[in-house]
Amino acid sequence: MILIVEVGHWLFMDRHAADMADVPTILVEKDQTGARSFTPMRTLFQLKKWTAARRFIPLLSCDETAYKAYEVFHVDALPSYALLQGGRVLLERNERDVEYEAALAQVDATSDEAVVAFAVRYLQDKLGDDVILAANGTVSGVTHVPNDVYVDGDVVKTGQQLFAWANEKERGSAT
């Protein structure tokens, strides 16, 4: 099982939320204006575990330049793949996957949902494994993390529940 996670909504918080959190947090994104995004330490440990196992793909709305500001994905938890610009760009080991871009150009994926659905199917075929999406909204034809895992406005609880659910699902599929 591979998780594609819309990290900006599910796992990362701004400075104010990090300052108010009752758990330790760590910086994950820093640009020229300073610290921008944080995540709970427990979430970082899970990110490290899942990326090391090649089981985690971040889904972000930013471009490649802004992606470089996410220190977590270049230092602590290096994903084999990353989906940028809402799924319009696929990076493999931080290099653009031109085959993906060509395949995406061949389909009629104009809406954000259609692009994400294409990305999930493409990665499922490429990696030969089930791909499960954790993102806000619904994308038809795609397997989603259960709705009750996401807690609106609480990335601490959402991250804990996401990885608890995913770890349990992994244990269940291993037997």
Structural write-up:
The two termini are 13 Å apart. It is built from seven helices and eight strands; from the N terminus they run E-H-H-E-E-H-E-H-E-E-E-H-H-E-H. It is globular. Strand 5 and strand 6 form a beta hairpin.
Give a brief rundown of this model.
With 175 residues, this protein is an alpha/beta fold. It is 41% helix and 21% strand. The strands form three sheets. A three-stranded parallel β-sheet has the order 4-1-8.
Proportion of strand residues? 15-25%
Termini Cα gap? 13 Å
Secondary structure: helix percent: 40-55%
Mean pLDDT: 93
Shape: globular
Residue windows where pLDDT falls under 50 for at least 5 positions: none
According to CATH, what is the class? Alpha Beta
Into how many domains do the coordinates divide?
1
> Structural class of the helices, strands and pairings?
alpha/beta
What about the largest sheet?
Answer: 3 strands, parallel
CATH topology, which one? Answer: Rossmann fold
